[in-house]
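Lecture 7 notes. Example A: sequence first, then its structure tokens.
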Amino acid sequence: MLNKTRNIIVLILCLLSAVALHAQQTKEQLASYYYQHGEYAQAAEIYKHLYDETSNKFYYQMLLKSYLELDMTREAQRLVERRIKDNRKDIYLHVDMASVWLKQDNKRKAEKEYEEALALVTPDLKQTAELVQALENAGRHDLMIAAYKRVREVSKNQYLFVNEVAALYGSIGNYEAMTQEYLDLLDKQPNMKGSVQVSLQRAMLQTSDERLSEGLRNALMQRIEQQPDNRVYLEMMIWYSLQVKDFEFAMAQAQAVFARFADLGAEQVYRVAGIALANNEFDVAEECYAAIIARGESTPLYYESRIGILQTKFNRLNRNFPVATSQLEALRDEYDATLATMGKGRNTLPIMRSYASLLAYYLGDIQGAADLLYDVLELKGLQEKDKCQVKLELGDLLLFAGEPWEASLLYMQVERTFKNDALGSEAKLRNARLAYYNHDFRWALSQLSVLRASTTKLIANDAMELSLLISDNMEDDSTFGMLEHYATADLYLYRNLLDSAWYELEEIKHHSLSHPILDEVLMQQAKIRMRQQHYDEADSLLSHLFDLYGDDLLGDDALMLRAELNEQRLARPDIALQCYEKILIDYPVSLYADQARKRYNALR
């Protein structure tokens, strides 16, 4: 009986507690509603009642905010004073009191409260977090830094809160102090280099203020002068140079590391070479690879650099057409020598593939290129993905040789093997392009419509570009006459039959002076004349294209190509400068904007 009575009492107490809790939550919701709608008097009345009942920190904060909104500074002052008396360890309350004094325009007393808060700092990290949060709410970033530094003093640990302090310096534009925070950390903990690089990279992305970049460079140079044998700062300078795309300076720093620390230096030089190659900085990439090769076979990354330098020289060909036959033959001899030394295998797969391209598309040795690719397919242990990539290249080679059906069969094999992979999408794209060459435009469009949703951005963009070319230029009568001429010219261009391609493009101009494909025709004719080294005629065609179609999709393409032509081939930097400037002014979001800005500044 006694147990039963006790259980009933417990149940009643639980019910009463639940009712009380529900009532408290309801009051809190009502107070929040009043505060959010600017009815601070009603909010203050409820929050005061809740605070008197519970002494809850949240209710205290909301009551203080309500008082300050109502300019009830005396009530606010008494509230904070009582809270400080009851909670001596909560030093953030002095920041609250400073807010009260500021409300009364008493800056002297407010600053005194801030000083009091900082003087009471202890190694207690929870206490620090509350103080910093209160200072952030007060908008005092300078005092947040002071609070963190005070914790360092009392904790006797100068490396606490480095990221927080550095970020605060960055937020107030003191980039020199921000940089020094990170570099001081590296002095003590060099293994934090990766974390520091991430933080600095984020800061550089978030601000366009040149002071940050310049300050970082100067700080690193100073540390290197002070500690010339400290590898961390040398590596940091290389990293910085790559971030700002100063590849020559990055190379110089990497070679300085290489001179002092052979193993580490080779890795740094090789890394700079790879990034420079990816950014088409061929001179830097070639010099870096050559520096490693010059040290001999025992040098780390020697063989990888042999492959890298060939890739660099081959990639340079694609950017500097035409190339003297003597240069092509010298590069062929380098490929032969490298393969003779390193052999044909999975390690030399990249240079076997690029060598095949050199033989076929530059030296006209189609059979030699095909034989080399077939040798690749026979390599033992070759992964299926690599094998299919080579099949695509072999298909391209067969198309170049005038064997479209055999090429299509290889494309279809790859598509079936990697149906749900980017490689399969690439094969589908090549088959769609082949259908376009063969004037089967409707089927090509049906394939391209699928590829436009590809998860691979490059494939989706290429599919979109070809799809628009076809759909924008299909005549209403469905004869597709001009588009057929253009597709045939496109195929001839791919096969390097320049005169035949020119004839097809002239047929379009002869039959129609208003067809929407004429801008594409002028662009292709300009490229043909460039490949034939008729640079003045190419420049005239590009100028004509821009005059007629400057507002269309090819406007910035024409300007950029004309700028490069005048700078690199015609030695007319004044015209190049005008073209670069026009891109920057009229096409600020162009893909060429960054490159145009770089060349514009160099020419100036």
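Example B, a different protein, same format:
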Amino acid sequence: METVRLTTGQAIVRWIVAQRTEIDGVDLPVFPGVFGIFGHGNVVSLAEALALVKDELPTWRGHNEQSMALAAVAFAKARRRRQIMIATSSVGPGSTNMVTAAALAHANRLPLLLISGDTFQHRVSDPVLQQIEDFGNPSTTVSDTFRAVTRFWDRITRPEQIIQTLPQALAVMLDPADCGPAYIGLPQDIAAEAYDFPVQFFDETQHYIRRPGPDARDIATAAMVLAAAEKPLLIAGGGVHYSGAADRLTAFAVDRGIPVVETVAGKSTLLYDHPNYVGPIGVSGSTSANTLAADADVVVAVGTRLQDFTTGSWSVFKNPRMRLVSINVGRFDATKHHAISVVGDALVSLTALDEALGEYQAPGEWLSHASDKRSEWRDYLDDYVSQDLGMPTYAQVVRAINDLADDDAYQVAAAGGLPGEINMGWQTKSVGSIDIEYGYSCMGYEIPGAWGAKMALPGREVISWVGDGSYLMMNSDIHSTVATGHKVIFIVCDNGGFAVINRLQMNTGGEEFNNLFKHTRRVNDTRVDFVKHAESMGALAEKVTGIEELRAAFRRAKTADRSSVIVIDTHPYEWTEGGSWWEVGVPEVSGRNEVLAARAEWVAEREHQRVGIWGRP
């Protein structure tokens, strides 16, 4: 057997470079790049190996380990999980900074390869710099914190272990059902140790994402249930995008006369003006979608894990005869809530279900009813954005940018009030054009996520929606977008603090406390100058007053040669209404009558929650 002597770090990098995939007929690397911050745990061996292939496998220097890993996740999402970015850190805080990004990737079923430095396996130098010591288990290091938030976890303790580990890690990341982050802990002494690796291990290898088909018996049951439906409803989830099944789902809905609603992850499956599209469902959804969900007798959920924001904490489906059919490539997600399960790829499963349905058509009056409710919802939105409420609302800002953005412009949002406003108010002009990270609702994703998305979609306009709270939490990758030439337009909406949580606090009877800056414990009433801050990182920046100034600034940003930051003060108390109930823990005992009233509402709404088995054939 022919061998080559390499360090573990060199061997890992050489194997990574050899992994290939094909997208739209073009041969591409599975791993197109690395985000890295080097410290003593990875600079000596892994960085030495990466430097040898810096043209084949570009390394992008991050500013914060969490944000660079978030950029990697956003890249994978924009590439529909078909390419995977790597994030590498040193030991200690550099490593644990990536835990949040790993959790986000895990919650959203997205691939991410994390390679972190680790302490010496020989332990002679213990305790080393940045080492956390477990008094009862000397083998425990900060690497172990990733066990709960990764789909694949390993610590390399011998060089030859990577021959087994690396293919398994990649198999998990490319698996449509088990997809999620993979973590490899690389101790400093093992990274530097050499081994005679088989040359064959580094042969170029072509990969693809499988399309597992459903069991014919599951399809037969689902078809039987749907064929009896008088008020069927399709829910399009994020899995529709990953499967490339948007056109198939749309055709299925049109042919069968079934209304379609979208989850947050599934948004932009249908265009805004499609006659079968009713709107977004759930807590940050529309009255139109939620009204249909309340009446539906068969709900076909495609590619969604049915998060509480989709189901209104399982209160939105009010028809006691409702039957749930769940089509999902993941068994775990397909079998939730006692659904009639179809375990398989969305595209393959919808095709099979369509073939099994025969001549079924939903009653025409059901789609007409959906159209009426959609028109009512759109009239409400148009009326709301036309109002003068003293200062711009989120909804007005969203509509203004929506009107001027390119049809295929890619939106990035994450936490706070903006995701809900974009989910409700953004009028989709192209399929697969929105990344609202609401699986983990991670503040700080918006800016690095936009950087990663622009890397993945270099020919498209990328717009990042950022609240002042998220901006202050993680902003350094504005500089990254400028330094690396990945132009993004950042819309920074400043409403004076964590306004959407202030809204929740008030809506559940609490006093305004510690969310808006004016309600926090402070000595000086200062506001951040976001324009100066953004300019200091090399971006073009301006603050605007009013919607007309916003439109003009956006036009300038579209033609600019680098990233632009547009700052606008927005209303802290005005929100688009229409969403469903959401369960949070309202106190049972309180000295505030407002809290007791909110508790009574909580008790009443819980009566609508579905518990146990329902709707079985």
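Note on Example B: Residues 216-376 form a domain with the Rossmann fold fold (CATH 3.40.50.1220). The first helix runs from residue 8 to 17.
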